[in-house]
Design brief:
By secondary structure, the chain is of the alpha+beta class. The protein has ten helices and seven strands.
């Protein structure tokens, strides 16, 4: 027991000597859309949801960005309700949820003003957000919605997104995506094993070919031209086989995940900082740092930071060093424990 405690202490000490992440900058816009700092996390959650489940909802390209733009642009109040992409998406989600509940299939349209009361009904059934949206909010009709700011509208939208995850359509999609991901993992492992075996067989074949050539010449040494020709052929075949093996090994080492099931952070630090790489940024691979702040402060002061493209290599080096030190520390801890 004492040895185990020492091992754990040493593990934490080892991990403490990590390189630092580069300095990030406060995230004030997403996909070119200016957003309030305090709403960054909610906006990213919504965009990640759309990225994962857009196929189920039949979302059009750019629809999620249009929703965010409408929520936080100054001109949203003059947009007519039937053309509001926020309301249209809420209705999409309401129809999906209601179709899953036999007792209330709605089939709402963008010209139907009763959608807002159904949002209130779903909220009442769930028992969440009652402090933000008391029941009387939904008794005044859609006019109450028109008084809300972008942050409140986004809360309603995210609530419907969360509710939709329990529907059969969403669960079935998640199961399909999970099965597909697992199949790809299995295929990648099989391909890697086959490529490794091919390289091994090629090495054996090259040794055999070399021996046969010497036998054909009755043990006489090869001429310079023959030696170079054979060496070139062997190198070309070896390079091709080794390349196939590296490619296959890369497929297995690349983290394949089912994003429809959940999005996992890349790294969680003890100091309340979480590193993410989200899928909603299709135009480029982007690292984001979530700073959760002190856990004894309520409400928590969450901040989101982004990095410049030229900092990507520095972040990857940091992650690599983190993994290597963790592995080394765990190995040392196991040795000391045993």
């Amino acid at each position: 027991k004492i040895k185990k405690a020492k091992a754990d202490s040493k593990l934490k000490e080892e991990i403490g000597f990590e390189a630092r992440l580069p300095q990030g900058i406060s995230m004030t816009n997403v996909s070119g859309i200016g957003i309030p700092t305090e709403e960054t996390g909610n906006v990213l959650q919504f965009l990640e949801f759309c990225s994962a489940f857009g196929k189920v909802l039949d979302l059009k390209e750019g629809q999620a960005d249009s929703v965010v733009a409408e929520l936080f642009s100054s001109g949203r109040s003059i947009k007519r309700k039937q053309y509001s992409c926020v309301i249209q998406m809420m209705i999409q989600l309401l129809n999906l949820i209601s179709d899953d509940r036999d007792e209330m299939s709605l089939s709402l349209s963008s010209t139907d003003t009763t959608w807002f009361s159904y949002v209130g009904e779903f909220l009442s059934q769930s028992g969440v957000l009652s402090d933000c949206f008391p029941p009387e909010t939904f008794k005044s009709g859609v006019s109450e919605y028109e008084k809300m700011d972008g942050s409140k509208r986004l809360k309603l939208l995210i609530f419907l997104c969360d509710e939709s995850l329990s529907t059969w359509a969403m669960r079935n999609f998640m199961e399909e995506q999970y099965t597909e991901t697992e199949t790809k993992k299995k295929e990648a492992k099989q391909k890697a094993a086959a490529a490794k075996e091919k390289e091994k067989q090629l090495r054996q074949k090259m040794q055999s070919d070399l021996a046969k050539t010497h036998m054909a010449k009755n043990g006489a040494p090869l001429s310079v031209e023959e030696h170079h020709a054979m060496l070139s052929r062997i190198k070309a075949e070896a390079k091709e086989a080794h390349g196939e093996m590296l490619e296959a090994m890369g497929m297995t080492s690349t983290r394949q995940r089912c994003d429809a099931v959940r999005t996992d952070p890349i790294l969680v630090n003890d100091d309340g900082r979480v590193l993410w790489k989200l899928n909603c940024f299709e135009e480029e691979e982007k690292f984001l740092l979530q700073e959760l702040g002190r856990f004894d402060v309520l409400p928590p002061l969450e901040k989101w930071l982004e990095f410049k493209p030229e900092q990507k290599q520095e972040i990857e080096k940091y992650l690599s060093a983190k993994r290597m030190k963790l592995m080394r520390a765990q190995k040392n801890a196991n040795v000391e424990y045993n």
